[in-house]
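Quick one, tokens below:
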């Protein structure tokens, strides 16, 4: 009897060990089948753009899972610098030279030459090939043509000082300079008042303009500013592609203010994060090569209204996007000067003017 019990115990143990072995094998296989993640910090997928980006990724069917994390340009920069010693992102998609100059200075970005390098303007490429332009953005003050210029309506604005007049009180929204669009638009105002003896390199007149722009803006900024442009406000800050896409999606007729000094042009940039993980950095290169390609950028441009930096993609799109770029005169912007002062400008606006 004792021998029988002993034999049964041994058999039970063998069955248990075999079962555990099979479960462990299945768990290992399931883990190996799970796609690795590619984390993309971006300021490019707010609103309807998120659906476009995710649809393009699904069609491509990468061997890795693409995870988009939306944030403003300034927030992206700050997070990437804070995470330098323990990177959480693999790609930074979007942001202007303001953000990418800081990332390059902090050795966040890894040098890389995408396969579409010859299809873009090389003058926009970062130092040591740390970042690359994939779109050309313009940033503007836009207005609903049905809500300005008529009886009992504010006049059509021609330049930023117009918005400080009493008839524009609570008639427009603004974006804070923590994001790229707000930062570049406020910078485009402040550089017109450069003064080495002024506060943070800007004259009193320049700071008064910004203060008055804040004071006249609707407070708080509408949560759905695109919907608000239909009737709640007459205008506000926007990027070039948004002029086209918002007018189309909301069925409203938008136009843009064109200051005499020109319109800010800026590249939307992409960079590979120096994570030290060879597999992830290879995946990052694959993603960037795909994102900036002619077909992807032509599709993205058609659906979002954003002008591709890829010359072949821009030629394929033509239409409203090409017409907008052809219409505008570029404002001369000293990016190094702006980069040198932007942190101080942002801090002053946040502490003294922010809504």
């Amino acid at each position: 009897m004792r021998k029988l019990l002993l034999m049964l115990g041994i058999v039970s143990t063998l069955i248990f060990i075999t079962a555990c072995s099979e479960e462990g094998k299945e768990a290992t296989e399931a883990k190996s089948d799970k796609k690795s993640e590619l984390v993309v910090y971006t300021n490019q997928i707010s609103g309807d753009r998120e659906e476009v980006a995710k649809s393009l990724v699904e069609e491509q069917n990468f061997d890795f899972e693409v995870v988009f994390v939306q944030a403003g340009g300034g927030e992206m920069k700050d997070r990437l610098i804070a995470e330098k010693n323990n990177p959480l992102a693999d790609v930074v998609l979007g942001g202007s030279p303001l953000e990418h100059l800081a990332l390059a200075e902090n050795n966040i970005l890894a040098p890389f030459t995408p396969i579409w390098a010859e299809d873009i303007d090389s003058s926009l490429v970062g130092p040591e090939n740390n970042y690359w332009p994939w779109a050309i953005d313009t940033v503007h003050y836009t207005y609903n043509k049905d809500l300005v210029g008529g009886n009992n309506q504010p006049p059509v604005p021609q330049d930023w000082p117009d918005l400080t007049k009493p008839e524009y009180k609570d008639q427009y929204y603004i974006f804070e300079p923590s994001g790229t669009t707000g930062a570049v638009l406020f910078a485009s105002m402040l550089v017109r008042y450069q003064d080495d003896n002024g506060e943070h390199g800007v004259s009193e007149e320049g700071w008064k303009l910004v203060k008055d722009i804040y004071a006249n803006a609707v407070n708080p900024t509408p949560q759905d500013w695109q919907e608000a442009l239909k009737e709640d406000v007459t205008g506000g800050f926007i990027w070039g592609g948004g002029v086209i896409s918002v007018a189309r999606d909301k069925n409203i007729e938008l136009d843009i203010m064109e200051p005499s000094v020109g319109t800010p042009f800026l590249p939307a940039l992409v960079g590979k994060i120096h994570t030290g993980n060879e597999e992830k950095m290879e995946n990052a290169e694959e993603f960037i090569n795909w994102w900036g390609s002619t077909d992807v950028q032509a599709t993205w441009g058609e659906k979002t209204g954003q002008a591709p930096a890829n010359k072949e993609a821009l030629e394929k799109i033509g239409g409203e996007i090409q017409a907008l770029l052809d219409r505008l005169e570029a404002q001369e912007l000293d990016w190094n000067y702006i980069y040198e002062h932007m942190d101080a400008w942002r801090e002053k606006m946040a502490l003294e003017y922010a809504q």
